[in-house]
Amino acid sequence: MMNLTDLFATRADRMRASEIRELLKLLDQPDIISFAGGIPDPALFPREAFADAYADLLGGAGANAALQYQVSEGYRPLRTWLAAEMGRMGVACDEGNLFITSGSQQGLDYLGKLFLSPGDTALVTWPTYLGALQAFNAYEPRYDRLTPAGGNMTPAAYRDAARATKSDGATGGEAKFAYLVPDFANPTGETLDRAGREGVLDLAADLGIAVIEDAAYRSLRFEGEDVPSILALDCARSGGIEKARTLFCGSFSKILAPGLRVGWICAPRAIVDKLVLLKQAGDLHSPSINQMAIHRVAETVYGAQVERLKAAYGARRDALLAALEAHMPQGVSWSRPEGGMFVWVTLPETLDAAALLAEAVREARVAFVPGAAFHPDGTGRNTLRLSFTLADERAVTQGIPRLAALVRKAIAAA
Amino acid sequence: MMNLTDLFATRADRMRASEIRELLKLLDQPDIISFAGGIPDPALFPREAFADAYADLLGGAGANAALQYQVSEGYRPLRTWLAAEMGRMGVACDEGNLFITSGSQQGLDYLGKLFLSPGDTALVTWPTYLGALQAFNAYEPRYDRLTPAGGNMTPAAYRDAARATKSDGATGGEAKFAYLVPDFANPTGETLDRAGREGVLDLAADLGIAVIEDAAYRSLRFEGEDVPSILALDCARSGGIEKARTLFCGSFSKILAPGLRVGWICAPRAIVDKLVLLKQAGDLHSPSINQMAIHRVAETVYGAQVERLKAAYGARRDALLAALEAHMPQGVSWSRPEGGMFVWVTLPETLDAAALLAEAVREARVAFVPGAAFHPDGTGRNTLRLSFTLADERAVTQGIPRLAALVRKAIAAA
Question: Which residues of A touch B283 (CB under 8 A)?
């Protein structure tokens, strides 16, 4: 018989290990000032609204529905609320275009499962959201680089690159979708302008592929004007959502609370129908009680909660940017996000942020996420991500000077 | 460019459409007496215990943790509670052997993802749980028939059958696991005896494969003695859980409430580690708040709730079996489950339960699930599943005579 090692040498072995998460496990010591975790500030959770929602649900006539099985596409009143919210974004649609996911991470996993066979190509920005790479990696794609702000490869060049990876007689290799976070991206904090979004749609049309628009941070704009969502631009040019090629992944995690795991996909009905089959097979449905609670809380406090987060996170971004300006040495640059949760720092090319992290944690008691993990090819070693959602005054006034001192030392030693 | 139909012709198209669910959508009319849905009786949900749990969580110091992200393996106190529960079942383990899933359906999906590549073989009983076939189908296996009560193919014959399906030079084909519901199975209600369980372990050892033990109904025994779980037998023969080949899928859906989507897998740590990677990539974690609520409710009412369900469902099973005995014509037989939720009815071979269902709904206003859907090869057309969890006195005294009259008519017409 096979031994157990062979028995359990299965598909997951071929997945990329999440080294970065291992590193971050070391950072739980209380005296560490962490700019690492991309998590919302729990002090800002609308706790009372959730307490009221769960109490109403479990005390009233809705209790049985909250505790019972639910349809796979999701709780209809929540889908109707989301259709109106998408309408406010310029996407005319109805609840049949809305599919509830267990967080937007599940949306990315299902879209990977739907589109990718081993060896297919996914176009992604460099760097890109690590969780998207983890979701897609399970389906064993190759990656090509998407540079929507300018300098994309021609459609013909993307086709040639995909074709070149096929072995004789093998199927697959074709590009299947372009994935991007157009607003206040994780990890860079940058926002793609309208021309860049139109360019992505042009490229997708030429290649005949879908666009996955990850809009997890979209509502968190502190300054400047909204840029239309890619799905809204797609609907305008294609004649409506049923003809669109863009699949919009939204999330309540950053605005209301991540612990309930409620997100959504807004897409043509043909795609929603396929996602429903994946959901029936995958986990039947997202928890009924959480979908109903999110619906109640969204109806009552969503707008006010968005404003509250913008004020709090906007002030923290300002403080972080001011501290970087005051303390970082020449040769270090960073993004100036108009919203979201992250600032992206580029160190001189001779520096390695992963090596710097080890020293930062050990000596300076400061943590961040090294940037290489966000690059499918492991480049970007001289970059790092700072999250400002938990960056209070102490974190900024003590943590950034300590980090800057380390960077100076590293530059001097390089 | 490709048209949208081509663009969206993706992997989900190759999944088996869930025809049976389409049929069941027709059955929502209130005057229908339904034995179809495999759902718990909502009148028996421990609603007050859940109301208390959510109120405590959101009113107290635990609120931030309940609303925040959680580790992928699941809430540690719940895993510790489950390790003790598995210990009572004869499986010595600790929380490192427990992995929290979003319902046991997600456990089946993840195990399919972990083990199956297209063309691999899964051994399943005929009939088997429809949701397991849907979960596994996404990974495109072939199925071979497992007959644990006796008459299994020899290991050599299974190997030959798998090998015969490979095309020249193709990899894959090997059997990867045996899947079964040993206690009060969905759909048959039958329980596999100890010798049958040992036989499955013998076969799995010969083939060098895993065993997936779906224990969704195990706690719901109304009469007779518990048969040791396959995992417990495996631990006894292999020397402990780390050397076991059995992966135990449990669920709170049938005892506490399905709407929270909380289940678990108990397995060797090597498997739990791989499942954690799938979970990180798939949906990050199951909802924090629901895991914490389930833990509180399990700590306070689990044992009492099991007793309450046994009494209620046991009485409904008795009434259903008595009505079948009183009304069904000769040539019809059925299982006599010692627990669970289902009775399995076998009609004369000339009858087609799917055709009977259409007539039953239209004329007799009675619904059930035709048995063919539970067979990977579409056999079993003369079988059907009756659920007794919602079968109150009216359902049994009116519904079964109506159904029996239809069967008589069909036998006469055949």
Answer: 101-103, 105-106, 109, 261, 283
